[in-house]
Amino acid sequence: MTLIILAHPTFDESLANKTIVEELQKSNLAIEIRNLHELYPDFQIASQTEQEVLLRHNTVVFQYPFYWYNMPAILKQWFDVVFEQHFAFGSKGDKLKGKNFLASFTVGGKEKDYTTLEKHHFHVYEFCKNLEQTAYFAQMNFVEPIYTYRTSLADGFTKDEIRNVAKEHSKKLINRLIEMNLYNYPQ
Amino acid sequence: MTLIILAHPTFDESLANKTIVEELQKSNLAIEIRNLHELYPDFQIASQTEQEVLLRHNTVVFQYPFYWYNMPAILKQWFDVVFEQHFAFGSKGDKLKGKNFLASFTVGGKEKDYTTLEKHHFHVYEFCKNLEQTAYFAQMNFVEPIYTYRTSLADGFTKDEIRNVAKEHSKKLINRLIEMNLYNYPQ
Hints:
alpha/beta; 5 strands; Rossmann fold; 6 helices; globular; homodimer; five-stranded parallel beta sheet
């Protein structure tokens, strides 16, 4: 089973993230979605509940918009309180060992803007090292993140354009999840 | 004047961050400290209040412990709600232009562990690109972060050792701030 940790402060008004989640729901994949802002509007995340949920799954997908070159705050809070010593790391902290860690996120702007001489100066993958090392430290399998550009109205893209790139994103994500299930990834 | 944005979920029990803040308070620097967890225990950060505070200062220091190779969640929430379009970025969003952006944080483990073949695999500066680009996008001056290793009891360091490295950290931070004031940095 695949767990979707959804972190979007205004999910109901979102275009890209909502489309991606809807496409996941329409697929035949066995998924469980946890909408963090809906569950924890005051950010008081129940660590034990979340840990119990994690134990039921082999794959965890983190679905969110890229905010300030990073994850939204509530997802960081989720890591801060759920990935505890003796659970996610430390001498007895091997409860997540072998589970797949897959970040799936939407980037507002264009790919070209994420290059050295353009306005975001860095490639998106350069901002993903904290994710990668978080997975390693919890002995999880870091799966290459899936991310899609051009998902923000503020950056000048239309609703249709955004829904279309979000659908392409969903296809990639769903195929990756099917592949991982089929081949029992990791081997 | 220097603004200290303090982000520590258990500041009163902290050793390193508490020592650093106490040393800053003992210095002759004109500082204003905002303890985010004390001000906003439910993470509902008042963006307008925080924006007004920012306008009073030339330098912003972000003081926090390094959690999961990143800032604590409440500081991310602060960026997510305070660095709004038309304030921090966008065609009219130049309110932070020219202000200094200085991250000051404590790292639990040893420097050696933050190398490719050791348990944290990356150098700390590799995890700082989101900070750097956040500063650039808000037209702020990104000052090289100040960070100190060996600040966690869980990593086997003693209270005295931690207080000592925190005092060294404070000296560096205070000197950097004095220098910046003296030379009216940036020129």
